[in-house]
Design brief:
This protein is α/β, with parallel strands linked by helices. Helix content is about 40%, strand content about 25%. Strand 1, helix 2 and strand 2 form a beta-alpha-beta unit.
Length: about 280
């Protein structure tokens, strides 16, 4: 997804560790899972990938216990992570309630950036912002939200995109929601890429499948619609937070210098025959 092997290792590790943070937990152990073409790529590349992953594992506070590696024709790297949390404080994507506000903790658009990079069509500042976002752990955001028990429902945004993970949350919770498309935070340059026709296959698959859960009020901007379906790599947390906790959460994130974006609200209970997600421009 990026040319620099150290950054690649960071992103892969952050992506793997995110699943624990998305349940309000704390990672404690990790195993490297590595597939490397040992005869065609310099060993220093593998060293840098593992170094990037190790630095993120150390940042998370987890311990690297070892790993497994095989000779493969394509580079693949990730982690098997174990985490812990209190038995009565396990968060899931179920529990969103009517009247809750919906929040994101990272900007959207990494999938479009990665696709543009593969096509050698990308500005350096957009790649830098996307790389920093993908490599960033969801550790602090999860810890802040859980510290005040703010989320009614919690998950992270990855390959299924915002709409995919949001629809899973609404189905699990038996609710529906309204999303303000213009409030969706985007990495710099993403809309320019969408306008120029950069559209990842994963994003197209997301829209083809998850559009069954979506209605579009009026004539929403098509670029913002595509952004909402965008396949993300190591995206941020998606939270459903009660109105009584919303201001406290916003203040806590603001005081900590941590990004937080309100993107909509849970509008009501699921109604048979009606869409779960209403996109409003």
């Amino acid at each position: 997804m990026v040319d620099d092997p150290y950054t690649f290792g960071q992103i892969a590790a952050a992506n793997a560790l995110s699943d624990v943070y998305a349940m309000g937990g704390r990672p404690i152990t990790a195993l490297n899972l590595a597939c490397f073409p040992v005869d065609t790529v310099e060993k220093e590349v593998f060293n840098q990938i593992l170094h990037g992953g190790l630095d993120k594992i150390n940042e998370s506070g987890a311990a690297l216990l070892g790993g497994h590696s095989i000779d493969d024709k394509e580079i693949k790297y990730g982690l098997c992570v174990t985490g812990i949390c209190h038995v009565n404080e396990i968060y899931s994507n179920k529990g969103a309630m009517p009247g809750d506000f919906l929040y994101l903790t990272k900007k959207l658009g990494t999938g479009f950036i990665v696709s543009a990079l593969c096509e050698s069509f990308l500005k350096a500042d957009s790649l830098k912002e996307a790389s920093l976002s993908m490599a960033k752990l969801n550790k602090k955001a999860s810890k802040l939200a859980v510290s005040i028990k703010a989320p009614n429902a919690l998950t992270d945004v990855t390959g299924f995109g915002l709409i995919g993970h949001l629809s899973e949350m609404m189905v699990a919770s038996g609710t529906s929601c309204d999303i303000d498309l213009k409030s969706l935070p985007a990495i710099k340059g993403v809309f320019t890429l969408i306008e120029k026709g950069v559209n990842p296959s994963g994003t197209k698959r997301n829209r083809k499948y998850f559009s069954r859960f979506v209605s579009e009020a009026g004539f929403p901007d098509e670029n913002h619609v595509w952004l909402s379906y965008g396949a993300e790599t190591s995206g941020g947390l998606l939270m459903s937070v009660s109105s009584k906790n919303a201001k406290r959460l916003e203040r806590l994130f603001g005081d900590s210098g941590e990004p937080l974006f309100r993107i909509g609200m849970v509008s009501g209970k699921k109604v048979r025959g009606k869409s779960l997600i209403n996109l409003v421009s």
